[in-house]
Fold these 4 entries.
Entry 1:
Amino acid sequence: MFEESKSPAQSVSSLGEFKLIDELTQSFKNQLKSSVKGIGDDAAILEPTHEQILVSTDLLIEGVHFNLGYMPLKHLGYKAVTVNLSDICAMNAIPTQITLAIAVSNRFNLDALKEFYAGVETACKTYKVDLVGGDTTSSTKGMTISVTAIGSVEKEKACRRDGAKEGDLIVVSGDLGAAYLGFQILERERKIFEVNEHHQPDLDLYAYLVERQLKPEARKDIVELLKQLDVNPSSMIDISDGLASEIKHLCKESALGCKIYEDKIPIDPTVVRTAEEFKLDPSLCALSGGEDYELLFSISQEDYTKIKANPNLSVIGHFTGPNTGCYLVGRDESMAEITAQGWDSFRD
Ligand code: ADP
Ligand code: MG
């Protein structure tokens, strides 16, 4: 966990900006031919691998988007990269490069920043993307991180939010709700630790949930899988805020309604068990929890046979005509309107 800077020899201010950038980035090696010039000049030079380029930026503020109380810096570095790559994947594209800007207060020493960059490097290697630039500056308080991800895609193959057609099937990758419960587990441990600092958390039972919260993955594998299966989704988005909010985005942008079937939503048994422990509805965790970073997309009905056998993909519903509303069909066949928070519960 994060330690305050004790040794002045390792303080960032004594190092100077150029030495610091060098210390943090020297182990990064470019992996892609398309990274013609990376770190070390006024700007990076990239040579696109496909006709269309995708660019996406996220800003992460300490205390707002992350809490170093339970987020180890290495995980933070990993997550800062993967959640950005997820946005590129959500366009059905392959991420290729990132740039990373950080602002840190003198609370952070060199070792702490190296931890953070170790996580960044692991993510870059895992996803075969190159860190090609960034900026480093001081802040008066806390840590701010900005990541820009770059990717490329064949012309006409990018999947936007507005491309769904009436009757298209709604598909989700992986399973939902785990990252939210992972957060609940970490919060519970933090509160116990506040009153008893000798408390040793036993997180084994919840390992999957905590991992989904601390180490989310971008579903680049799904983009590759869809290409292999020759499926070109009509619309796509990644699930950062919860299924309910994301499906509403697709409906709004595509000017359609939808029906989602509660019993089709993929939920891991650990999520069901832990939701019960917290007296939460597992479906609500999936609908409103967020941070799962799975892909939500639509395909034409003709493409159903291409994906139906795949254990990583679940068909959870379909798009309905314009102005028909977004509905969740419950296990008891009740219909409830989906709201960004989950659903309007007519049932209790
Ligand atoms: P400039 O003065 O032109 O902004 P910098 O000294 O900020 O240049 O950066 C020098 C090089 O190091 C540039 O290639 C820049 O992209 C890269 N760089 C700076 N900070 C970071 C960082 N935190 N992570 C990765 N690369 C960085
Ligand atoms: Mg600079």
Entry 2:
Amino acid sequence: MRSNQDRTAEGRSPSRPFDVQKIRGDFPILKQRVHGKPLVYLDNAASAQKPQVVIDTLSRFYSTSYANIHRGIHWLSERATEAYESARVRIQRFLGAAEASEILFVRGATEAINLVAHSYGRTHVQAGDEILISTMEHHSNIVPWQILCEATGAVLRVIPISEEGELLLNEYEQLLTPKTKVVAIVHVSNVLGTINPIRRIVELAHRHHVPVLVDGAQAVPHLAVDVQALDCDFYAFSGHKLFGPTGVGVLYGKAALLEAMPPYQGGGHMIQSVTFEKTTYNNVPDRFEAGTPNIAGVVALGAAIDYLSDIGLEAITAYEGELLSYAMDRISKIAGVRLIGTAKDKAGVISFVVDGVHPHDLGTILDNDGIAIRAGHHCAQPLMSRFGVPATARASLAFYNTQEDIDALAAGIHKSIEFFR
Ligand code: 7TS
């Protein structure tokens, strides 16, 4: 894979040495106290915090450059359009896509997957066909395919996983048949942290001429992603988990596939001409961006990506890898803790259950000490069933977390065990 540093916008300085204290200073919310304690934010898989540069970009854009886009004519509209389209180019580089028009702006990973299930799915999937997903999918990569199956009579098939939370690739190979029409798979599990071998998954699917959609919502904050190296056909992610604003996300699609796909939503901007008799559609990406998009959100997502590229995804992956090892070691040593998700290739998501302590009670006790984690099924109920638990506690890391955060978490777990003893 190309290094992310090669991919930063021209003229940018190469990555600085990784200085977590300096990075923490970029995130104003981390200076807050919660219930009188310093905030320990370990709920990054739900949503990540925003650096000052993202907050400033939103404010500056609305203060100086805001108008509706793609309406030409006046200066402000041109300025806003330029900012919006320049974010598209930044994201193209960030993902290593061949063309900017392969980047579609949507509301988030959920909408990206629904777009593909609806537009690609309804054109290519028929009764008796099969859609292949895995046991570790988020509901947003299950339900859109079930809706497609209900509408078409297609069948959902599920790749099983091991006790460690790794995909069973042999079983995957067996499930790939001439009936398979789409493989939709998560890159990094939001519960287990497992990093799936996407390149290999794509290679096997392509032998059967089956396109692969990758749900990258939990991957892009942790790993350098190169869609051309992965050779995936679609790649989806959300801006808010990537230190950008809410309400904006990205669908990458290979140009040839997108160009052959019908619109997902109808409205302004996605048309070439409209009469009551017939409407012709715009080219890609405009065909898939009906109505006024989240203009400022897109621009600020561009700023988030510049910020990350300046730090360097390789540096982030290396730092988080060490922090994850430290955390797994500390938490696994606590008597009564069962870790769920121990794959060899794993990103900074730690799920666990504690004997005698309900995950929600643990979450409440931790919150009292200013520690934010998530407890519940994490929108992955079938995965909870696979591990025979109704819920887990989940601590999820970002590059601004520290060993002190993990120490605070470990102390909180001990405290909750004492409390319920
Ligand atoms: N895919 C994965 C792997 C996710 O983790 C999530 C959100 C989504 C898709 C959907 O993203 P959205 O931005 O469209 O909502 N995951 C979580 C989570 O783990 N806790 O809260 C949201």
Entry 3:
Amino acid sequence: MRKSLMAGNWKMHTTREDACRLAEEVMKHCPTFADREVLLAPPYTVIAAVAETVSGSDIIVSSQNVCWEEQGAFTGEISPVMVKDAGGSAAIIGHSERRQLFFETDTLINQRVKGALDFDLMALLCVGETLTERESGQMLNVLETQIRNGLAGVRAEQMARVVIAYEPVWAIGTGKTASKEQAQEAHAFIRELISKLFEKNVAEQMRILYGGSVKPTNVDELMAQPDIDGALVGGAALDAESFGRIINYQKN
Ligand code: PEP
């Protein structure tokens, strides 16, 4: 069955010292798991330091975005080769903060996804609707558009390295979590869509994470849903105790 993936997005937090301390503390909460993986996405400046801190463990280190080119005149970007050189093996792409604050479009996000995959990174594609879109009945259309466009041109054999994170924008950093029923509905829809776009077995193997105010108090019920295969965690990932409890969820 699918191994779950518990991912911490540190956003624009941590200096080198904070990052190494946090990574060390997180490691203490990570025995060798048979059924789950842990991923940390620190800022670019500390990817190498975090990768060094967790080396020898099974923790996956990720960037928070990635360019599609290996190198060149792309001021402010990070290439997949640079992520790998720093010790990373994954990239978060299309986070709602990139879409909303930096106007990243589905076309740009698609280039990033394909670039990550072409250089053998795991690509965590984030999708999710705003509150207005949800309230006007547009949620499923929005998810379908973001996924169809985000994965355009991705080959079925590359899908083993794609993870989708469903992150309703209204739940990110707001303390409001989607109910387990709301999250499950969106995840089931996404899996069905992937099976239409690719094949049933691609959909069955693909991990779909939930993100949006995941906390120690709600992780167990979310993880008990059949189509929720992990969590993408922002705020609570900056506290090793909280993230440790999230990683060590128990399905109830
Ligand atoms: C995120 O950054 O992807 C996120 C879900 O943040 P938070 O957990 O703080 O809502």
Entry 4:
Amino acid sequence: MGRNGSKSEQSSTLVDNFHRPVDYVRIAVTSLCNLRCSYCMREEHEEKSDEESILKKQEISAIIEVLAGLGVTKIRFTGGEPLLRRDIVELVRQAKTQTGIKTVSLTTNGVLLDRFLPALIDAGLDALNFSIDTLDGNRYRTITRREEFCRVRKNLDLLLTTDALAVKLNVVLMRDVNSDELHQFVDFTKHHNVKVRFIELQPFDDNQIWRTGKFFSADNIRALLNRSYPDLHPVRGNATEYFSYTQPNHKGSIAIIPAFTRNFCTGCNKIRITSNGKIISCLYEKDGVNLLPILRGNGSHHALVDLFRQAVSQKPRDGRHTLTNSVRTSMSEIGG
Ligand code: SAM
Ligand code: SF4
């Protein structure tokens, strides 16, 4: 079986103590970012990460090989901003060529997308989530604290010219910040084959802005949608896109992610890996299981398998019960 370990190990998948199979892994490939979204990062977020501790391309590839052997089929690259990694195209290509991996996707703020889009498609990227919370330049500056709106908007148009990728827009809706733009985003789906996902604020930022009255709940979003669009047609959602809709004569569709008010734990099938090599088994877990000593210490394939099993066995039945104010200071640590 070579590096892939024994046959019995191959055939046994990752299942947690509550019988939930894990087949989806989000890998944050950097914690750095070229924006400073107010709900995600402090302005003074580190400009440099500790280079030594950042997972290298070969290490990410080794991790994906182990995960594929344990039944993982879906990888999402995220960050920080994943397009800040110069080797992002290679990472996608490697993941796509790994036996067992069926879907490779990416979440990006889109600032650098024009540099990478053709190569990412060529490398086999299946799907791309593009984060854009407003279609207004002034607001974009206020939310992201950077002057990148023109580039991002152009890159969104560029992305929409390709049908090689499944495209979703991530829109974090905040009261008195961009909640009044819901209609513009719904209108956007009229002519574009994208799914717009309205996301509730989650309590993972240093400034705790979700405590400042800006939290806009999924119930509010639903009420607004139902009031404004009587023809809106509910369709089957999934554990994340809990409420999903189509609108007659619109090419795209709409979903709501009740990231805070609903408990996704029952159907949770994912784990996360931080850019410095920690396995995070639950969004609400603080420390994680460190892969680096084994990865860099000539540890065997079996030792890595054991670490993943250990991490998955730590998945709580319901992570929200473990929520504390100190759990996480930025979503960029774990990639959303
Ligand atoms: N930088 C990339 C981007 O923005 O798409 C990838 C990483 S970012 C952490 C992934 C997703 O998490 C983005 O769609 C972002 O809007 C979302 N996010 C970040 N902080 C959040 C928060 N406090 N609540 C809800 N969503 C958040
Ligand atoms: Fe950067 Fe994405 Fe966080 Fe915005 S949400 S600061 S783009 S990591």
